[in-house]
Amino acid sequence: MTSTQRQPDLADQTVVVIGASAGIGLETARLVRAAGAQLVLVGRNPDRLQQAAHELQPLSTAAFDATDTDRLKQFFEDLPGPLDHVMVTAGGPSYMPVAEMDLGAARRAFDQRLGMTLGVALYSRDKVRARGTLLFIGGTGGRHPDVGMTIVSTLTAALPALIANLALELAPIRVNLIAPGFVDTPLSASLLGDQLEARRDELRKKLPIRRVVGPADVAALAVDIMRNEALTGGTYDIDGGQRLISH
Q1: I need a surface site. Which of 20, 44, 75, 120 has the fewest CB within 10 A?
Q2: Rounded to an integer, what distance in angstroms lies between the CA atom of residue 222 and that of residue 77?
Q3: 193 or 136: whose pLDDT is higher?
Q4: Can you tell me the distance from the alpha carbon of 236 to that of 188, in angstroms, rounded to the nearest whole number?
Q5: E-strand spans in 38-182?
Q6: Do 72 and 116 meet the contact criterion of CB atoms below 8 Å apart?
Q7: What stretches of 111-201 adopt beta strand conformation (E)?
Q8: What is the pLDDT of residues 191-237, one digit of tens each?
Q9: Do 38 and 59 touch, CB atoms closer than 8 A?
Q10: Which residues pair with 175 in a beta bridge?
Q11: In angstroms, rounded to a whole number, what is the distance separating the alpha carbons of residues 55 and 207?
Q12: Per-residue pLDDT for 1 more than 50?
């Protein structure tokens, strides 16, 4: 009979959440805190970050744009180690039809997303303990080509390959990617505007789970990946079955 090892809890661990002031990042920080971990919170908006800190009582906070790789490097250099997990939810999609595309803006979109991912890997690797986690957010929606999706689709394809390679390069640190579909967050609300409620209604009818995926769903998966030390190099879809239906 094979013995089953109990997955470790997060008590007495230290978790950095980049993009912690709203949406998936904030919900992950809440769940991590409830699991007993200490937090370091990073967000671009100082006011929202202060509100999150008031609620969660982190070890420290830092307000800066994580796509600024010089500032990102300084942040990790200044952090005391060791760290157990780093979760990155910062950044948003770039929708640019080729007919309206500004090449400089397109190049910045690629550079910021890939540069931030590589920057976190490079600058945190000496601080994260063995079998700790670097955990990033990708997506499933960009797997379906469409007008305006050139940048999103390319990054959607590139990120799983990047994460798999980083898992080998940084071992025994674990590196994983969460790929949500539509998630009902403030970012989604800002992108859809007055079309938000119609999109929610559409997904409630079409998704196999018959409800909309929320930040707490993604946060629960993130914490499970942090806990499970057998997971690395993977891309984990969480979209309520959105990838299974026609768009």
Answers
A1: 44
A2: 25
A3: 136
A4: 20
A5: 38-43, 60-63, 83-88, 128-137, 174-180
A6: yes
A7: 128-137, 174-180
A8: 778 888 888 898 899 999 999 999 999 999 999 999 999 999 999 99
A9: yes
A10: 134
A11: 33
A12: no
Q: Is 152 helix (H, G, I), strand (E, B) or coil?
A: helix
Q: Which two structure tokens, joined as six digits, stand for 170?
A: 């940084």
Whole-angstrom Cα distance, residue 21 to residue 7?
28
Task: Give dist(CA 2, CA 6) in Å, integer.
Answer: 13
pLDDT, tens digit, 9 for 90 and up, residues 148-176: 778 888 899 999 999 999 999 999 999 99
Nearest of 191, 236, 235 to residue 94 by alpha carbon: 191
3-state DSSP call for residue 71? helix
The token pair that represents 190 in the structure block:
């800002």
Each residue's pLDDT tens digit, 22-32: 999 999 999 99
pTM beyond 0.85: yes
235 to 170, 177, 240: CA distances (angstroms): 17, 5, 15
